[in-house]
Amino acid sequence: MAQIDAFFKLMHEQGASDLHLSSGSQPILRIRGELERIKYAVLEDDALKTLLYEITPEEKIKLFEETGDLDFAYEIPGLARYRANYFRQLHGVGAVFREIPSKIATIEELGLPLVIKRMALLPKGLVLVTGPTGSGKSTTLAAIIDQANRDRKDHILTIEDPIEFVHQNINCTVNHREVGRHTRSFGAALRGALREDPDIILVGEMRDLETVSLAIEAAETGHLVFATLHTISASKTVDRIIEVFPSDQQAQIRATLADALRAVLSQTLFKRIDRKGRIAALEILIATHAVRNLIREGKTFQIPSVIQTGKKFGMQALDDAIMDFLKKGWISGEEAYIKCIDKEKFKSFAGDLVTDFKEI
């Protein structure tokens, strides 16, 4: 057993999502969204390096020494998998580990709107799960893929950096590919995917023009593609995709994206006050005929209005989801106010948090 495994076991016992190890600091856990120090000696650079390198593949150590950055996955059988990120900082090395549970939570267990179940059964198209870092995008995607794995008889191909949730073959055949380990890049894996007879493709992150272009192409050619983006709303997600392309290609990509897109789920994570844990509030955009026209015509600023009037299609505004949680007593008024869109609507719940809602 590696020495660092003791920290992972403590992390698991405490229900922490992340473990922070930095030279010049005590170890820190993120529990329910807040950082808490572990009662442990301050980590010295050489000691931390020894701790980290014990679990790091030799070729990854060389890469880290050359670049100062590293991503990989580490697994403790019977406990959990961990997404590791190493970096250099002022006082030496640092690392952050995100726990990836071995048991995949279902859509119901996560408290997600049931319309999301339908996305696991779509025959083709592009479904995007977006939100800031640490908002639970990977967990939501894992639940959708798990639903598809149970309800379909298809080939699911995941392309990630690194592999996070591991899906066992239930009714589907699932193949996991890791960028840098099994394939050179997201683009290379996506080009190969079109010759590997997949029905569903999961792209861990659409990072660049090539990946975005190939993901849309795969969705257009009869595959169901799931992918993530670091955007904070459905309309900004559409804008981000289009802005990746050169200006002379943007009119064409609007038309292509309008045809390929099926849904955008934009989520924000909240700490629960009624019990331990966190819950995601979602803005849900369904690509109806009206939405497709707005994308083609470059009128994405009107998408929030369409979401408000599209409840019968399963659409949901972020503020409506937040208000629902607030009325159920699941989240605090202060956090709802900070993370909502319409500050005036939530001002009465903010207490003494601020004196001028426009400042946030």
Number of strands: 13
- In CATH, the homologous superfamily of the largest domain goes by the name P-loop containing nucleotide triphosphate hydrolases
The CATH topology label of the largest domain is Rossmann fold
From the N-terminal CA to the C-terminal CA, the straight-line distance is 47 Å
Report the CATH architecture of the largest domain: 3-Layer(aba) Sandwich
What class, by secondary structure content? alpha/beta
Strand percent estimate: 15-25%
**CATH class wording of the largest domain:** Alpha Beta
Give the ordered list of helices and strands: HEEEHHEEEHEHEEHEHEHHEEHHHHH
Radius of gyration: 21 Å
Strand line-up of the largest beta sheet: 9-8-10-11-7-12-13
